[in-house]
Write a structure and sequence with these properties.
Membrane topology (chain A): Multi-pass membrane protein
Shape of chain A: globular
Strand content of chain B: under 5%
Number of helices of chain B: 21
Number of strands of chain A: 4
Number of strands of chain B: 2
Structural class of chain B: mainly alpha
Largest sheet of chain B: 2 strands, antiparallel
Organism (chain A): Asanoa hainanensis
GO molecular function, one term (chain A): quinone binding
Strand content of chain A: under 5%
GO cellular component, one term (chain A): endomembrane system
Number of domains of chain B: 1
Enzyme class (chain A): translocase
Oligomer: heterodimer
Chain lengths: ~500, ~500
């Protein structure tokens, strides 16, 4: 049987893969660090632009029961975001590569491969594509995390990340296999109806699929496996040591692009394939645990990267909360369902932009080869380098969800609104109280930036690629802070 | 024209805040000029938009909606979050708008001559102007979500003012302020969307004019909103952030905190909580009244034992806001009118008191009541003004403080029933205690022979800057005291409609 393949739908994926190949070729034939980096950045930006341009609804690799590759405006948003985030992280890596910490060719190649996984993941229409794309996204990161070869922490971080991630993938795969065993379906769009209908196992009498213990086990394993990827509590323990041990730009990638990947996978699974009545309570519990534990532990952190890591654990909780509310309201309407998905997606977008801004500022303030360092070393940073310090403070305040970080404020507003529209008032109250705990540590760091510095540290020159990324992320955050409707419209899909 | 003025009142301080980008003196001048322009715009706004006469009690038509804006602007902003740029001004909000622009202007002028230690003066002025934008936006917002956004805008600039230019324990005080008020405003967020999700609209004019919410939604919404506003007001027992913040903040910060920021809580209670969830308000009124009276008594008793000047004034705010909240809790026209005029009077008088306390601390480097003494001997003008402000604050008839306190008590008696009469009696006792602690403060600070701390500094004359900053407040304290109609005349009609809507 021959299938017609819609190459336009696949174009962003092709471009991302081509970027990886081109980077290797450029590294082989030109062997100039700058050229390799420029090729990688251009490829990432081109991928993003193409994803935006061809964002119309398309599908390919279709069988009667569903399509394996589905492009719509939301997947285009994710793919574009992925491209831009990768470009940003590549630029942030410039000082690191110049310092010779990592070989430029391999570094850029691995990031481009990871981006390919993310772009494909955005459009994945069946469970196999989804899990393979997610693995393509994660696999290069094992190496990248271990790139700071001089230090033990980096190696330890890479091993932790590798082991946890592989286990998580195995768990998700097992879940997918069990669901396939019950329904003999893999396509997300046909899995939902199959799970709510009747099935007959091994030629026996038809029973409701949801009554089978096998179904519950499959759903639970799939969701929990993906919860590892977004570092939801109690599957979060890998994140802080991994972020702290990885080179700073890679930590930025982990907490933005890689987290975005996990969210995309979860969204695809819980909104399309799995019945919300089953996943909702699990996700609500995960959300409450994730934000509360993340915020409380972040209060005690004294290292910058660990603080950002724990805070990004907590932020994942806010993203999960609307998804958890999907099932909790008995009289939930289609509108409330859409509001919840829109809130989760737009929160993710606002979050990754602010997080990229925060990491870009940290990269700009640190030595090229350094890790995040202790919070003390940021004392008075905003007095030494006014704009970088202000941008970092703005990003942190945005993550806390307060004006003048309007983007973060509207992200929180969207989440709380969706929870109350879905009549999950108690979850909204927990989200709200967590925002107060969050402010306690964000404002502590922001105030530290403006505190007088007794040591009078000298001002350092700021590498321009990092400054550029910082300026772009901050400008974007300010722009969507005043016009959040742009993101909300796009997230509606 | 009046729409343009409405926008100008909000936009001018926002533009003035850009003064932070300039060098220190230029930035301060820039900010002060824009604060002055905003003040002028707010005066013109009243002159142009309120055309039915200022001092006439024109009763509202029966069944009129509680909010009939004199003028309003409405534009779409974020439809997906039910957020519209809907601003308007009426008799309830207008006095507070003028109070805000006036106090901010006075603070900017004061900063022009006197920058507290801690940072650049232009940054301080810019932060004050951002706080002003937040406060004005809160008073002018006619969209519930917009109200919340502006309520939040105030938080971090005020934090920065306290943390950057405050006293010795400023960081702790600032963080306490930020966390407490954020706790209040996140509950506000939940309350706002409880209302919006149930009613399907965030328009305050619609929400207050017709009751579409079920009883349970109203109770939940009122509980959330009332806690949110009680933190901001602050209502005992949620007041503990206030003494620290007031004591540690620089003078201009204390003035804005006490003068206007607290009013966001009481204004929100009247306009949003009572207006949107009247049934919830009726349900919670006895509890609110009891807490308000507890605040009055606790505030007075703490003040009687207080040994620090700024802390005493801060705690006196707890007592005064207790009277305001008691007025709101009665849900009668007299009570809400008393609350509104009490709000304005407290803003004027406590603003003046904080300016004076700051002047005392600047000169003698202490606010300790045991160390101060005999101020009359060294600086008759300063001590005379302090006496004037203290007497106005304790509610002498003829000065601004009288109307709010007296009529809050009257309203409690009007409401009738054993419970309310008890509350009225207790509040009246609180009024007497207020007189007691202010007189005690005056005796300690101004009377007797000059203490060593007061006698030591060489020059203690009042400067021109101080007189410029204080005299409008002195005049207003007299004006509102003698002609309360300047406030009451504006708010009579909307309050009458509100009470009609609240009482079944």
């Amino acid at each position: 049987m021959t299938q017609s393949v819609d190459h336009v739908a696949l174009l962003p994926g092709y471009l991302a893969a081509a970027t990886a190949v081109l980077v290797l070729l450029a590294d082989l034939f030109v062997a100039r660090r700058a050229v390799t980096l420029v090729v990688a950045v251009c490829g990432a930006v081109a991928t993003a632009v193409v994803a935006i341009v061809f964002s119309g609804a398309r599908a390919t690799f279709c069988l009667p029961e569903g399509c394996s590759y589905v492009v719509n405006s939301r997947s285009a948003l994710f793919a574009a975001l992925f491209g831009f985030l990768t470009a940003g992280v590549l630029l942030l890596s410039a000082p690191l590569l110049r310092a010779g910490v990592a070989p430029a060719g391999e570094y850029c190649f691995l990031l481009a491969c990871s981006m390919t996984g993310g772009v494909v993941l955005a459009s994945a229409g069946d469970l196999i594509t989804l899990i393979i794309a997610l693995e393509t996204l994660t696999l290069p990161l094992y190496v990248l995390v271990g790139m700071r070869r001089q230090t033990m922490e980096s190696a330890a971080a890479a091993v932790t990340f590798f082991v946890v991630s592989v286990v998580a993938t195995a768990v998700s795969l097992l879940g997918a296999a069990l669901l396939y065993a019950v329904t003999s379906r893999l396509h997300l769009s046909s899995l939902g109806p199959a799970l709510t209908g009747d099935v007959s196992l091994a030629g026996g009498d038809p029973v409701r699929a949801l009554d089978l213990p096998l179904t519950s086990a499959g759903i639970a394993l799939l969701v929990l496996g993906l919860a590892f990827k977004v570092a939801a509590v109690p599957f979060h323990a890998w994140a802080p040591p991994t972020y702290d041990g990885a080179p700073l730009p890679v930590a930025a990638y982990l907490s933005t692009a890689s987290k975005l990947g996990g969210v995309m996978a979860l969204l695809a699974v819980v909104t399309v394939a799995l019945p919300p009545a089953v996943t909702g309570p699990v996700l609500a519990a995960l959300a409450v645990l994730t934000m509360t534990v993340g915020n409380l532990v972040a209060l005690r952190q004294i290292r910058m990267t660990r603080l950002l890591a724990w805070s990004s654990v907590a932020q994942a909780g806010y993203i999960l909360a609307p998804l958890g509310a999907l099932a909790l309201s008995p009289g939930r309407t289609g509108e409330a369902f859409d509001t919840a998905i829109t809130a989760a997606v737009s929160y993710t977008v606002f979050f990754v932009v602010l997080e990229l801004g925060a990491f870009a500022a940290v990269v700009a303030l640190r030595e090229p080869t350094a890790d995040g360092g202790r919070l003390d070393s940021y004392r008075g940073a905003a007095r030494r380098t006014r704009w970088v310090g202000a941008a970092l403070a703005l990003a942190l305040i945005g993550l806390a969800g307060l004006p003048p970080g309007l983007a973060g404020l509207f992200a929180k507003v969207a989440v709380v609104r969706s929870l109350l529209t879905g009549s999950s008032g108690w979850l909204a109250v927990i989200v709200a109280l967590n925002a107060v705990i969050g402010l306690a540590y964000y404002v502590r760091v922001a105030a530290l930036l403006y505190a007088p510095d007794p040591l009078n540290r000298p001002t350092r020159a700021i590498p321009w690629p990092a400054a550029g990324v910082l300026a772009a992320a901050t400008a974007f955050a300010i722009a969507v802070g005043f016009a959040p409707q742009l993101v909300l419209n796009w997230a509606t899909g | 024209m009046s729409e343009a003025l409405l926008v100008a009142v909000l936009a001018l301080p926002a533009v003035g805040a850009l003064g932070a980008l300039f060098p220190d003196r230029a930035g301060r001048l820039f900010g002060t000029v824009f604060a002055a322009l905003a003040f002028v715009a707010s005066l013109l706004l009243g002159a142009y938009s309120h055309t039915t006469g200022w001092f006439s009690y024109t009763p509202a038509a029966s069944g009129a909606p509680p909010i009939v804006p004199w003028t309003s602007v409405d534009a779409s902003w974020v439809p997906a979050l039910d957020l519209r740029l809907h601003f308007g001004v009426d008799g309830v909000s207008y006095p507070l708008v003028v109070l805000t622009t006036l106090l901010t202007l006075l603070c900017c002028l004061y900063t022009w001559w006197h920058v507290p230690a801690g940072g650049r003066g232009s940054t301080l002025v810019a932060l004050l102007l951002v706080v002003e934008v937040g406060m004005l936006g809160t008073f002018l917002a006619l969209d519930l979500v917009l109200f919340f956004v502006f309520f939040e805008v105030v938080l971090l600039p005020m934090y920065a003012v306290i943390a950057g230019w405050g006293g010795e324990r400023r960081r702790h005080a600032a963080r306490k302020f930020a966390l407490y008020t954020l706790f209040g405003s996140v509950l506000l967020l939940v309350g706002v969307f409880t209302v919006v999700a149930a009613a399907g609209t965030a328009d305050l004019v619609t929400l207050t004019s017709s009751t579409v919410l079920t009883r349970n939604t109203q109770l939940a919404a009122f509980a959330l909103l009332a806690i949110a506003f009680a933190v901001k007001s602050p209502l005992w027992p949620l007041h503990t952030w206030l003494p620290d913040a007031h004591t540690q903040a620089p003078t201009v910060g204390s003035v804005l905190l006490a003068g206007v920021l607290l009013k966001m809580g009481t204004y929100g209670l009247i306009r949003v909580a009572v207006g949107v969830a009247p049934e919830g308000a009726r349900w919670a009124a006895p509890l609110l009244g009891a807490l308000a009276v507890a605040a009055i008594l606790v505030g007075c008793l703490v003040c009687l034992a207080q040994t620090e000047l700024k802390r005493l004034i801060a705690y006196s705010s707890v007592g005064h806001m207790g009277f305001v909240l008691l007025g709101v809790a009665t849900l009668t026209a007299t009570g809400i009118q008393a609350a509104l005029i009490g709000n304005v009077a407290h803003g004027i008088i406590t603003g003046l008191l904080f300016f004076l306390a700051g002047a005392v601390k600047d000169r003698f480097h202490t606010g300790d009541l045991a160390v101060l003494g005999g101020l009359r001997e060294r600086s008759p003008w300063l001590s005379g003004l302090l006496a004037f402000a203290a007497i106005a604050s304790l509610g002498l008839p003829g000065l601004a403080g009288f109307w709010g306190e007296a009529f809050a008590v009257v309203a409690a008696f009007e409401r009738g029933g054993a419970g309310w009469i008890t509350l009225g009696v207790l509040a009246a006792i609180g009024g007497a205690l207020t007189a007691a602690y202010f007189l005690r403060m005056l005796r300690k600070v101004t009377h007797g022979a000059a203490s060593p701390a007061v006698a030591a500094p060489p020059a203690v004359r009042l400067s021109g800057a101080e007189l410029v900053a204080w005299s409008p407040l002195v005049v207003l304290a007299l004006l509102v005291g003698l002609v309360p109609a300047v406030v009451l005349g504006l708010s009579a009609a909307p309050v009458q409609s509100l009470v009609e809507a609240v009482t079944p």
